[in-house]
Design a protein that fits this description.
With 405 residues, this protein is an alpha/beta fold. 27% of the residues lie in helices and 18% in strands. A nine-stranded parallel sheet has the order 9-8-7-6-5-4-3-2-10, sandwiched between helices. It has a three-stranded antiparallel sheet with strand order 1-11-14. The chain has a two-stranded antiparallel ribbon with strand order 12-13. α4 links the parallel β4 and β5. α4 packs parallel to α5 and α9 crosses α10. The longest helix has 16 residues. It is globular. It binds zinc ion (ZN).
Length: 405
């Protein structure tokens, strides 16, 4: 029986292991940017950071032009892969975008290619209309993509794949059916109730991932779908387990100002939502996995596009991350929640590897206990004198684990 005094006494000190080994880290949601062979500097700047940590990463095809065909994927993927530094075992995969005009057979062909093929598509990403930065390559009329979802859910369509491909959904609705604008706070709930459930009614075997869950009610919905036998999975971006709407209005010195660098879409919600996401992340439930939705945003407000805040003052959603810091923060969350590190391994790799039918990870990364301060920027200077500098959302924070060289 528990001693009543222990309930009110000082909480037990947390013990942080000196060393943590993780195998086959897999980030299911990164935006490597750059556009086909254009090399605007963001891919070149960011990929070495990601490759240092992840054995596999899935890059979303909302580039310019958007990756909506196998031919476009075959042009883009080798370019990204070529930026992985020599000697680092890190593979870039691609999620093609679904649109109302998707050529279903073409995408199915890409989804059935062996992973090493340049035109292989690992998954399909669907943005609902105008909720984020999809360059207009998104979906308003859900009925128009049902043939694609049906084909993706038909095992007979695939000769090589072991499992059905994943449909990644940015589940937010900006407008009601009659064109009324939905409040920022309610957009994810609207999409879950209207779109996720309609897909499940029409294609019950669909393999769906709700990207970057931002609401406790979405976690409840996923628990419900899983209990009912549907294949609905939750991607958890750890910053949704830490930030709330109010954090967007902190100047870092105790004053109030709009801080655009943590700003992400979906928008952060309440402290209760954030706590629910952190607890789902550390729960050990196999249907939640890691994908941090990072993007390299150039910190150059004189440019019109491709930057965090542009010359017109418009701010793009998305956090620039240093993967080493993100993994440290996830490890700290598991340790502080007193959950076993085997749960962290499953969350950061195994659960998503199973869902995406990737082979078991072979690369071990070693994190060691050492306080370090996350730099405010990552940057790279190019031979022509151009400097790409991205402001890191976690910049200035002290993290407890660093990557051992
Ligand atoms: Zn994203």
């Amino acid at each position: 029986m528990q001693n009543i005094e222990s309930l009110f006494g000082p909480s037990q000190a947390i013990e942080y292991p000196k060393e943590i080994l993780l195998e086959g880290l897999f980030n299911t949601h990164t935006h490597l940017r750059g556009g086909i062979k254009k090399g605007d500097g963001r891919s070149e700047t960011f990929i070495p950071y990601a490759a240092a940590v992840y054995e596999d990463m899935l890059s979303i095809g909302n580039t310019i032009p958007p990756l909506v065909t196998t031919a476009l994927v075959a042009e883009q993927k080798p370019f990204w892969q070529s930026l992985v530094p020599k000697g680092m075992a890190s593979t870039v995969h691609v999620a093609a975008l679904a649109t109302e005009k998707t050529d279903v057979e073409d995408i199915i062909t890409g989804l059935d290619k062996p992973l090493g093929d340049p035109s292989a598509i690992l998954a399909v990403k669907m943005f609902l209309r105008a909720v984020s930065n999809s360059g207009g390559f998104d979906v308003d009329n859900l009925d128009a993509v049902i043939p694609l979802i049906r084909a993706m859910s038909d095992r007979k369509k695939f000769k090589h794949r072991r499992t059905l491909p994943v449909l990644k959904i940015h589940a937010e609705r900006k407008y009601t059916l009659l064109g009324r604008r939905i409040s920022f706070i309610d957009r994810e709930r609207a999409a879950v109730e209207r779109d996720i459930e309609r897909i499940l009614m029409l294609v019950p075997e669909a393999n769906i991932e709700i990207c970057h869950v931002s609401l406790a009610s979405t976690l409840e919905a996923i628990d419900y779908y899983q209990l009912r036998g549907y294949n609905v999975f939750g991607e958890i971006s750890p910053h949704y387990g830490h930030y709330t709407t109010d954090d967007l209005f902190e100047d870092g010195k105790g004053g109030t100002a709009m801080n655009s660098h943590p700003f992400c879409l979906p928008i952060f919600k309440t402290p209760a939502d954030s706590a629910a996401i952190r607890s789902a992340m550390t729960s050990g439930k196999p249907y939640f996995h890691f994908g941090d939705d990072e993007a390299c945003h150039d910190n150059n407000p004189t440019l019109e596009s491709g930057v965090k805040i542009n010359s017109a003052g418009l701010t793009a959603g998305g956090q620039t991350q240093i993967p080493e810091a993100v993994i440290s923060s996830v490890l700290e969350d598991f340790i502080e929640a007193r959950r076993p590190l085997s749960f962290a391994q499953a969350f950061l790799s195994d659960n998503a590897r199973q869902l995406y039918a990737l082979p078991v990870g072979r690369r071990t990364v070693r994190f060691v206990r050492k306080d370090w301060v996350v730099p405010n920027t990552i940057e790279r200077e190019f031979p022509n004198g151009k400097i790409v500098r991205c402001r890191v959302a976690m910049g200035g924070q002290t993290r407890k684990y660093c990557l051992a060289s």
